[in-house]
């Protein structure tokens, strides 16, 4: 296998080697002609670079009954393992839901079974996302809410991010108009992005 060996004055070398298998055609790695720079690797990415993306897309529907407390929404859960303890996780959530009656619906973020308390508000119920929809005489309208949060786990362990929901009263229906009708349906999603610090 062909290679170029660049020896450091301290004695060790950096080797630029051909790939293990024969490429389908010639490959060109072009260096910049008008600026200095550093070759970035997965262990040395540029600050702000997206290292990985994990995505959960919920197409089915589910319900959470009143007085159930905050309950994990099935299908809005995804695991991510950090490549560097200093990196951050950008959490993006979009939820389609209907709430029977003219009541609030609350949503929170959890890391496993532990609430990410820094993502919640400091007053009232302390929700990550809350919504109140009162369309005059119409109930059970399908609406959509979204939110974003920068999470700093400070380790390289696997983290499972879950979205929890809680209806103030009545039934909270995810991805459909209400607990019985399926005529109007939608989707919800959870996206996790590891960003280099």
Brief synopsis:
With 197 residues, the protein is mainly beta. It contains no helices and 13 strands. It has strands spanning 3-7, 13-17, 50-58, 62-64, 71-81, 88-99, 104-111, 114-115, 129-132, 143-151, 158-167, 172-174, 188-195.
Annotation keywords:
Jelly Rolls; 13 strands; mainly beta; single chain; 5-stranded antiparallel sheet; 197 residues; 6-stranded antiparallel sheet
Question: How would you describe what is shown here?
Answer:
By secondary structure, the chain is an all-beta fold. It has a single domain, classed as Jelly Rolls (Sandwich), CATH 2.60.120.1340. 0% of the residues lie in helices and 45% in strands. Strands 3, 4, 6, 10, 12 and 13 form a six-stranded antiparallel sheet that branches. Strands 5, 7, 8, 9 and 11 form a five-stranded antiparallel sheet that branches. Strands 1-2 form a two-stranded antiparallel sheet. A hairpin with a 5-residue loop joins strand 1 and strand 2. The radius of gyration is 24 Å and the shape is elongated. The model has no long low-confidence stretch (mean pLDDT 87).
Q: Topology of this structure?
A:
Layout (H helix, E strand, L loop, with lengths): L2 E5 L5 E5 L32 E9 L3 E3 L6 E11 L6 E12 L4 E8 L2 E2 L13 E4 L10 E9 L6 E10 L4 E3 L13 E8 L2
Q: Tell me about the largest β-sheet.
A: 6 strands, antiparallel
Count of DSSP-assigned helices = 0
Helix content: under 10%
- Supply the helix-strand structural class: mainly beta
Q: Which term fits the overall shape? A: elongated
- The CATH architecture is Sandwich
Let me know the average pLDDT.
87
CATH topology: Jelly Rolls
Uncertain regions: pLDDT < 50 for 5+ in a row?
none
The gyration radius over C-alpha positions equals 24 Å
What is the count of β-strands?
A: 13
Query: What is the class in the CATH system?
Result: Mainly Beta
SSE topology string: EEEEEEEEEEEEE
Distance between the termini: 36 Å
């Amino acid at each position: 296998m062909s290679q170029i060996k660049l020896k450091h004055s301290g004695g060790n070398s950096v080797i630029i080697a051909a790939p293990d298998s024969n490429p389908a055609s010639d490959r060109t790695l072009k260096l910049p002609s008008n600026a200095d720079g550093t070759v970035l690797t997965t262990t040395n990415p540029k600050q702000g670079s997206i290292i990985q993306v994990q995505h959960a897309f919920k197409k089915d529907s589910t319900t959470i009954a009143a007085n159930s407390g905050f309950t994990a929404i099935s299908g809005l859960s995804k695991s991510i393992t950090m490549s560097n303890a200093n990196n951050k996780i950008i959490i993006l959530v979009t939820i389609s839901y209907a709430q029977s009656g003219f009541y609030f619906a609350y949503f929170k973020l959890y890391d496993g079974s532990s609430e990410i308390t820094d993502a919640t508000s400091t007053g009232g119920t302390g929700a990550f996302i809350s919504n109140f929809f009162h369309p005059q005489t119409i109930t059970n309208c399908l609406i959509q809410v979204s939110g974003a949060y920068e999470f700093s786990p400070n380790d390289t362990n696997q983290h499972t991010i879950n979205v929890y929901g809680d209806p103030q009263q009545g039934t909270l229906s995810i991805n459909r108009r209400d607990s019985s009708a399926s005529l109007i349906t939608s989707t919800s999603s959870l996206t996790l992005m590891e960003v280099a610090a």
